[in-house]
Predict the 3D structure of the following.
Amino acid sequence: MFELENALDEYLSYLRIERGSSPRTAEAYRRDLEGYLAFLDGEGVEAIADVTRDKVVGYEKALQDEGLAATTVRRRISAVRGYHRFLVREGLTQANPAETVKIPKAPDRLPDVLSIEEVGRMIDVYVDERPQGLRDRALLEVLYGCGLRASEICDLNMDGLFLDDGFLRVFGKGSKERLVPIAGAADKALRRYLAEGRPALARKASVPSADNQAAVFLNQRGGRLGRQSIFNLVRKAGSAINRYDLHPHTLRHSFATHMLKGGADLRVLQEILGHADMSTLQVYTHLDRTHLHEEYISAHPRDKMDLA
């Protein structure tokens, strides 16, 4: 097994140095591949050349027999395939036993969404006129009304507000900048918080800093509101509608679903959400087949025709 273990160290170095993988990503690969090598060791495999396709398939079956989630099995088999590609690339072996092993198909998981009525009931609970209450309502309205990620609303700055033009400037994954439309209830709640809530919270900062002054959403001490506080707020809001484990991303999914139901174009929605790949949005097209069927029935010219 020394040959395989030594090659693993080389592969992890390759990921970190040549591929630029983060330490956390490299460590995840290490854990997954150490499990693979332990399986091979149990199968009596001692050298790279001894690994066959049957061994890789056997490892996949062993993972499934453990009852692991399909996503976990997919990740581990993907790691194995990458490892064997590296071994061939470096000339440590000529054959890639994992090349024709298919990665298990991902299950069709539809994102959890709230109904429009649930969103309304959840937000309408927040009628607190104190600064914190105005902030909390504005935050929920913007999270849902603009489809933002928790990190995006946490990092939202005052110089990114173009409310008179109807836009927010946010920074998504990879610090990619985009403009997100804001209107209606979200715009109204945010404006009121900025006028009546934020100044009171800002005065509580014992030592004002540039970051505090830049942040839109402030905590009780006048500093930038953190991600955990946003998660806690959303979870608390969810309890009002008996959704006790509500996540900020559920509001984002709900926004996307409701926009599509309202007739929004997929490419427009892609721009608003900041998805680089259109395929990421395809999951939303399956969320409400009943709605699509009703639209078909009401619009199709031959649906009402009786056949003799």
